[in-house]
Specification:
24-stranded antiparallel beta barrel; 2 helices; about 50% strand; mainly beta; Immunoglobulin-like
Length: about 725
């Protein structure tokens, strides 16, 4: 009986701790604050800090060993933050001085502000012991890594000073950098801190390890001394000048060009943004990482262009990102030329209105006009997206989307079927108060000339996440004629079902922090073919996360595939496997990732087994050498050996990607990425020098070089860009 009472008491305390309510007072001031990392103004000592941080790792049930104190002040224009971060010593890990660093494997402190108290979106700000800043947007309630956007930029200042056993960060964040409702007196708030010396990850509000550390369901309150006003919101104008020189060695054509354009940002009220772009240029954007895709279907890559970033979740989170996404912004500015090649299509101008009308209602309107290129038979198009989202219950919402691509040219090569493509859809996004239940339910319909049936997609996903169990089920239907020219739809005429059960076990002692045992199943059926099965996968998996932050996993896969079209698994343009043939094949994958806190870290991955009617060996790995805080040198490599029986082809596929990052100081960075892909027969070099000579104002020198590597090593395309951008407040 006593044991039962003790158990109930423990469960009760655990429930109370994860359901805690904490708040921190934000004091109004009318005196000046000097942002210098000292906190020596008297007013800082007059406010009570947010304190009593909890461990998130290696355990989530005790107070942090090294605590953090966060104080807040504000005036009519700015929020001031004073942070004191204690540490076991002074041997901090700061890999780089580059802005927008990643938190993992380094010392840093991060704050998140849910300014509309909706538990769905937040502004994130962070710093490290060297005073390097980062900012990001968190969307989707912080339930998925895809909702973490570090490409967002805004103007704010921060300084850090190191002392014996702690460091102090002092920030000034203009209210104009944030969006909120005038008259608000509370924001939801949380903070997380990475301590590499004590091997801790800590949070102000206690968060179970089964959830992400940036989950927005677990937040306390900032209580402002008096209601927030409407700060001055300046108009931002960001003009650019870009000079380009290049040569295409295949056609022996040389190019020189000077391009001028820019962006403008207007704030409407406290919570709406109007962004305008004219003749945009994205030459400074980091190149995509080349991948080896052995599947039969297209893969999507993340959006990196700044104009499309802010409030991107409002437009992009409809449907399913992997199977039926009605709007994928990377489609804009890309087209197919007369030879069937994918090429850049210039954007002439665009505008985006996005934000909140009130705490519960978000709106988004995007309109982009692309250029007409008659020589390459690329038609100009006007692209419009309208997205509305309304909060329901504690953290859920209902969204409606309308997507329209309309041909604006009068070219003979445009067929009647290509005149327009439209889509309308409705989504319900479920998230309960503590995120133990979340999910999505949607139905979308497309409109294409001469198409009147099978043009729907729909889906239902539900996930349970509580303590030691995580259960997911996802079912999606995509009609044979469902189409979104601005979306991502890799397969049509499919009903796909994905299910996964995970059991988390936390050992009381030893080197392993937690075991994760899981079983995943994946089925694909073809509705128009009497629901004939096209694919299935069974994937049991074991993962061990060690207390030193290293990670080991083993996954077995048993697969079935029925081909409906010919396919060459070797990717060598050899003899294809015939349509109508079916294959059962099994494989095992093992992966290890070392302690990312080490000066030298690495990861290795091996997959071996059957592949369609043959065998596959995949070896992947990466090494990273940190000479902090100025140099990071890395190398990623992948080798695929595909053995198929005669008369089918074999293939050896290589992908090698060395990278060097040099941060001379907090304003001058030089990154070089070299990528060799035998599958693409290309060696690419991208070298980018960036000088941030003023806040959010940059000079870029970008060198790109590509070489043929198949029969002869020879130059393919070469270019150099010099671009200057300047952020003006009017």
């Amino acid at each position: 009986m006593r044991k039962k009472i003790l158990l109930l008491a423990i469960l009760h305390v655990t429930f109370l701790s994860f359901s805690q309510e904490k708040e921190v007072f934000v004091k109004y001031i009318d005196s000046d604050i000097t942002v210098d990392g000292k906190l020596d103004e008297k007013v800082w000592s007059q406010v009570e800090p947010a304190k009593n941080f909890w461990q998130y790792f290696p355990t989530d049930t005790i107070q942090a060993k090294s605590q953090t104190e966060i104080r807040f002040l504000y005036d009519d224009q700015k929020l001031y933050v004073g942070i004191k971060v204690y540490a076991p010593g002074n041997d901090y890990i700061v890999p780089s001085l580059r802005r927008d660093f990643r938190a993992g494997g380094s010392d840093n402190i991060t704050l998140m502000f849910d300014t509309f108290n909706d538990g769905a979106n937040a502004f994130l700000f962070g710093s490290n012991p060297e005073g390097v800043l980062r900012e990001a947007l968190v969307s989707g309630g912080g339930t998925d890594l895809r909702g973490f956007t570090t490409s967002w930029d805004t103007k704010w200042v921060g300084e850090t000073e190191k002392y014996d056993g702690y460091y102090i960060c002092e920030w000034a964040i203009p209210f104009s950098a944030l969006k909120f409702r005038e008259g608000e007196t509370r924001w939801r708030f949380n903070s997380y801190q990475f301590d590499t010396q004590g091997n801790e990850r800590n949070t102000w509000i206690q968060i179970p390890q089964s959830q992400f550390i940036f989950n927005l369901a677990y937040m306390g309150d900032m209580v402002f001394e008096k209601p927030l006003g409407s700060p001055r919101s300046p108009i931002s104008v960001i003009p650019y000048v870009n000079g380009l020189a290049g040569k295409d060695f295949e056609t022996d054509e040389e190019t020189t060009d000077i391009k001028v354009g820019g962006d403008a940002k207007f704030t409407i009220g406290n919570s709406l943004n109007l962004d305008v772009t004219i003749n945009p240029d994205f030459s400074q954007v980091e190149v995509d990482n080349v991948i080896t895709n052995l599947s039969r279907f297209e893969v999507n890559l993340p959006e990196r262009r700044q104009f499309f970033i802010e409030n991107n979740d409002l437009f992009a989170d409809f449907g399913d990102s992997r199977a039926a996404n009605p709007f994928f912004s990377r489609r804009i500015g890309i087209a197919t030329d007369i030879d069937g090649n994918t090429t850049q299509n210039d954007i002439l101008a665009g505008a985006r209105l996005s934000g909140k009308l009130n705490n519960n209602f978000r709106i988004g309107l995007l309109n982009i006009q692309t250029a007409n290129d008659a020589e390459q038979e690329i038609a100009g198009n006007n692209n419009t997206v309208v997205a509305l989202q309304h909060k329901v219950f504690s953290r859920s919402n209902v969204g409606v989307i309308f997507v329209n691509r309309q041909n604006t040219s009068d070219e003979a090569f445009v067929t009647p079927d290509e005149e327009y493509n439209r889509l309308i859809g409705i989504d319900y996004n479920l998230a309960n108060k503590d995120n133990s239940w979340n999910g999505k339910f949607f139905i979308h319909k497309s409109f294409t000339p001469n198409t009147t049936s099978n043009d729907f997609s729909g889906g239902a996903r539900l996930e349970y996440n509580r303590n030691n169990w995580r259960v997911l089920t996802s079912n999606i239907f995509v009609g044979e004629n469902f189409n979104s020219d601005l979306g991502f739809i890799p397969r049509k005429d499919v009903f796909r079902s994905f299910n996964r059960v995970e059991r988390l076990i936390f050992p009381k002692s030893g080197k392993i922090n937690r075991h994760i045992f899981s079983l995943g199943t994946f089925f694909v059926f073809r509705p128009e073919l009497d629901f004939e099965k096209a694919d299935h996968t069974f994937a049991p998996r074991w993962q061990a996360e060690f207390k030193n932050t290293s990670n080991l996993s083993i996954t077995a896969r048993s697969r079935y595939t029925l081909l409906f079209d010919g396919f060459d698994p070797s990717r060598s343009d050899g003899l294809e496997l015939a349509a109508g043939t079916e294959y059962y094949y099994e494989s095992v994958e093992a992966e290890y990732r070392s302690d990312m806190r080490s000066i030298f870290s690495y990861n290795v991955n091996t997959t071996y087994g059957e592949f369609f009617n043959g065998d596959l060996l995949t070896l992947r790995g990466g090494v990273n050498l940190r000479l902090q805080p100025h140099f990071v040198i890395g190398l990623n490599a992948r080798y695929d050996r595909i053995d198929l029986p005669d008369p089918f082809s074999d293939n050896d596929i290589w992908l090698i990607s060395p990278r060097m990052e040099v941060t001379f100081n907090k304003s001058l960075f030089w990154n070089t990425l070299i990528q060799y892909s035998s599958l693409q027969d290309n060696l690419g070099i991208n070298s980018r020098l960036q000088w941030r000579f003023a806040p959010l104002s940059d000079l870029f020198l970008v060198y790109n070089d590509n070489y043929f590597t198949d029969n002869v090593f020879a130059p393919r395309v070469r270019s150099i860009n010099l671009k200057v951008t300047y952020w003006l407040y009017l």
